[in-house]
Amino acid sequence: MIGGTMTGINDVAATRRGFIGLAAGGAALAASGGVVQAQRVQTSARIAIVGAGAGGTAIANRLANRLEGAVITIIDGRQQHWYQPGFTLIAAGLKPSSYAISNTFEWLPEGVEWVPEHAAEIDPEANRVTTLSGRQVPYDYLIVASGLSLDWDAIEGFSLDMVGQNGVSAHYAGPEYAELSWRELDRFVERGGIGLFGRPATEMKCAGAPLKIAFLADDIARRRGTRDAVQVIYNAHSPSLFGLPIVHHKVRQLFDERGIEARYSHVLKAVDHRRKVATYATPDGDVETAYDFINVIPPQRAPQVVRDSGLSWGDRWLDQGWIEVDRETLRHLRYANVFGVGDIIGVPKGKTAASAKFHQPVVEDHLVSEIAGREAVARFSGYTSCPLVTRVGRAMLIEFDYNDNLVPSFPGIIAPLEELWISWLLKEVALKPTYNAMLRGLA
Amino acid sequence: MQDLTLTTLIAVFEEMFGPVVFWAMVVVAVAITLLYVYVLIRDRAMSMRKFLLAQLSMPVGAVASVWFVLTFTNSSLSDMGGPIDWLMVLGIGTVGAVGFAILIYVAQSLIRGPQAD
């Protein structure tokens, strides 16, 4: 994952949103009819999909369903599929690592060729993807669903082999690391001390997840009766705890009530695991803080193969490399036969599985409509969703769009800024089935 | 949800329980309902004695269904955070109570027969 190769590509994972709706949605069901299966479109188009995570797998299933005769090739060397929204639950000791692990191939539709290799080069001028072994995949349409890379090397002194000992946790790294992270969190709340949490300064997948793990540490310590011995410190990268001002204020209020200390404009820079000291870059210079437990979430960037392809924005996110797509159609602004889904797209909101789910019908509509000679109508609103867990058994179902508007799925029924059991229920019960249905192109 | 249709809901429930268990549950629910209609037609009347026992069993169904949901979601009644949560609990309890009552009524009718009243 470390900067440079595609080995670390993690597709978007975290979905949260719709699932919930499903569980609670009996009433809404009455308002909507059944799905009318669209007629399949005949084509001989060659479609290449880079990345078989949540976004790539779902769009492969959707296109296989809508197109007759298309040659669809999906390129990803990762054998395991990770249900990333489950990582927080694993890191809180509520689920085993196996909860988030399945096989890439089991989600892919028949008729789609899976090339089990990482992409080494994407050439949008020549309309060709080349894999690590040198195999060339020419295309008429390209969908970039590579996910993002976690840049662990950007944290000085840190490496993943430290996770699971001396109070170091890093649940973003994968299901096994999430389980190791739980063991450290478990030891920490048992023994007490200072716990450091926080988020990177880059765009990141699921900006609510760093808050959740801090809330859960507080809650688990309370349940154990060790809260007085535990200090929970959350380091925000900016002067705000969450991108939406209204959510920031709510979280700040909850932090105050729970005794979670918030430090602003603190970006993790280095970890000295021998001295158990973390260094943060702040506007006033570097600050060192001793810890007994630390949760590390690194800067996040486009995989190197994407950054080398010329598909990235040239005037923004220069250190991150997200691809230059229209924020409503998700079509590349310079290469009209290229689309993006999932974490890799350069839009102002939403690196969550819920967003990836909402990217699907948009890209499907634009691609299929173009092939069929129709005009596409679907637009992405920036929809992002976060069941912000505030303790075991409660969450706030926060959904918003490009305009920082709250866009609740169940207005008047499930309040977005209230800690509710029903929101937890959606996260715990309904999210994964909905995610799986999304992978199959059914939701 | 963006596209909350019956097809989507069925797809999600199939993922939640697995297709076999989900459709088995649907078949069991439909079968019990059909049996209920059957015994009503067969007996040409509601048996108040059987109905009384069925009613008395309702709290058991209600408590069992709420307990089931709480247990499998790592939560407890202290997690209820607002009116919608209590409505949800009431809804789950009601479904459990009614379902269990119908089951008890049907079971009595099938085991004892119409003459047992």
- The first-to-last residue Cα distance of chain A is 29 Å
Count of strand segments of chain B: 0
Strand order of the largest sheet of chain A: 7-4-2-11-22
Helix residue percentage of chain A: 25-40%
Shape of chain B: globular
Shape of chain A: globular
Over the alpha carbons, how many angstroms does the gyration radius of chain B reach? Answer: 17 Å
Taking pLDDT < 50 over at least 5 consecutive residues as the criterion, the unreliable ranges of chain B are none
Largest sheet of chain A: 5 strands, parallel
- What is the number of beta strands of chain A? 24
Proportion of helical residues of chain B: over 70%
The gyration radius over C-alpha positions of chain A equals: 21 Å
How many helical stretches of chain A?
10
**Helix-and-strand structural type of chain A:** alpha/beta
pLDDT below 50 for ≥5 consecutive residues: which ranges of chain A? 1-36
Task: Outline the structure in words.
The complex is a heterodimer of chains A (443) and B (117). Chain A has 443 residues and is of the alpha/beta class. Chain A contains ten helices and 24 strands. In chain A, the strands form eight sheets. Chain A has a five-stranded parallel β-sheet, covered by helices on one side. In chain A, strands 13-20-14-15-16 form a five-stranded parallel β-sheet. Chain B is built from five helices and no strands. In chain B, helix 2 (19-43) packs across helix 5 (83-112), helix 3 (48-56) packs across helix 5 (83-112) and helix 4 (58-72) packs across helix 5. The relative contact order of chain B is 0.15. The mean pLDDT of chain B is 89. Classes of the chains: A alpha/beta (443), B mainly alpha (117). Chain A binds chain B through residues 17-19, 21-22, 24-25, 28-29, 32-35, 94, 357-358, 361, 383, 391-394, 409, 413-415, 418-422, 424-425, 428-430, 432-434, 436-437, 440, 442-443, and chain B through 1-9, 11-16, 69, 72-76, 78-82, 84-85, 88.
